[in-house]
Amino acid sequence: MPVAAAFIVELTFYLLAGTGAARNWLGSRGKNRVPEVLAACGVVPWLMYSLATDEAHLTAFLLLLLIGLVVSLWYVVLPAAPLVDGLFLAALAAIYLSRAFDWIYPSPIAKQSISVLGKLMLIRTAAIAILVIRGNVKAEFRFVPNRGEWTKGLLFFAPALAAVGVTYWALGLIEMRVHPLNVFQALGTFLGILWAVALPEEFFFRGLLQQWLERWTGHAIVALLVASVIFGSAHLGFHRIFPNWRWAIVAAVLGLFLGLAWRNSRSVQTSMVTHALIVTVWRTFLR
Q1: What's the average model confidence in pLDDT over 46-60?
Q2: Is the CB of residue 275 less than 8 Å from the CB of residue 201?
Q3: Does the pLDDT at position 76 exceed 80?
Q4: Distances, alpha carbon 219 to alpha carbons 88, 156, 209, 223, 230, in Å
Q5: Are 107 and 179 in contact (CB under 8 A)?
Q6: Between 58-77 and 82-97, two packed helices, what is the crossing angle to 10 degrees?
Q7: Secondary structure of 75-119 as H, E, C letters
Q8: Burial of 165 by CB count in 10 Å (0-12 exposed, 13-18 middle, 19+ buried)?
Q9: Residues in CB range of 260: below 8 A, 6 or more apart
């Protein structure tokens, strides 16, 4: 019950981060007050489950609080500049990939990780820090694509599926499920991937990184290639194998098509649709 309550609260905070009205309300409090709110909200789900399950440890609490403060105070302390922006994204990647949340969020449930609570906290805190405190960003952290974004996302899905499929086969990764997911399981998988995986990854990799690389280098193709390689590199630890080069190559190929989808519409939600569809097909039919 404490874990379930923590998930409900964290999901509420996460959904609010994708709501313009909530972000506008936060901004109206004053940019210097936003980090206080973000840091406080960051530890609430942890306190709810850890105190009730005897999983609370002061060191873990302090580390979680430090992560929240660093992310939320970044653009209060530092100016919006290329080096600062690049280091911000690098810091987020380091925190996310370090598996620190596995240690901060020890699970009271056998064989069931709950570190996703920390990952969602990091995503929403960083998104609000970018959109509310830094500002001047042409990318939306929004859950529901519009009709045009659905259409364009679907158009890029077919070539992306073909390229990723060929890469997957060439690397010897094909292993079919004996029993594919049913329609309802596939739909649930799609919605979960769309909102919890595709949205944050497309927001940070395409909406921020690729867009900023275009501005810094002055070359859209260079930005596309570099962002795709970095996206692939972020998957080197996939399935807890490092370095997992085959998965990194697959992710880099996928990143190229996601970057093209974003360039075509300049919308995070377009590449988000393509991303979620590709991963859903993989999880539905492949092991």
Answers
A1: 94
A2: yes
A3: yes
A4: 22, 22, 13, 6, 17
A5: no
A6: 160
A7: HHHCCCCHHHHHHHHHHHHHHHHCCHHHHHCCCCCCCCCCCHHHH
A8: middle
A9: 156, 224
Residue of 47, 43, 190 whose CA lies nearest to 122: 43
In the chain, % of residues over pLDDT 90: 90
> Which tokens belong to 59?
């060191």
For residue 159, is the peptide bond before it cis, meaning its omega torsion is within 30 degrees of 0? Answer: no
Mean pLDDT throughout 198-203? 97
Of the candidates 193, 185, 216, 205, the residue with the CA atom closest to the CA atom of residue 279: 193
Half-sphere exposure of residue 238, counting CA atoms within 13 Å on the CB side? 15
- Side chain identity at residue 15, one-letter code: L
Tokens representing residue 32 in the block: 């210097």
Spatial distance between the Cα atoms of 246 and 256, rounded to a whole number of angstroms: 16
- Distance CA(197)–CA(282), nearest Å, equals 14
Q: What is the mean pLDDT of the chain?
A: 94
The model's pLDDT over 219-267, given as tens digits with 9 standing for 90+, comes to 999 999 999 999 999 999 877 778 899 999 999 999 999 999 999 999 9
Question: How many Cα atoms sit within 13 Å of 274 on the Cβ side?
Answer: 33
> According to the model, what pLDDT value does residue 52 have?
94
Residue 68's CB is within 10 A of a number of other CB atoms, namely 21
185-208: b (≥16 Cβ within 10 Å) or e:
ebeebbeebbbbebbbbbbbbbbb
How many Cα atoms are found within 13 Å in the side-chain-facing hemisphere of 276? 29
Question: Could you give the CA distance from residue 25 to residue 6 in angstroms, rounded to a whole number?
Answer: 24
pLDDT reported for residue 89: 96
Dist CA 193 CA 274 (whole Å):
11
Cα 276-286-243 angle, rounded to 5 deg: 80
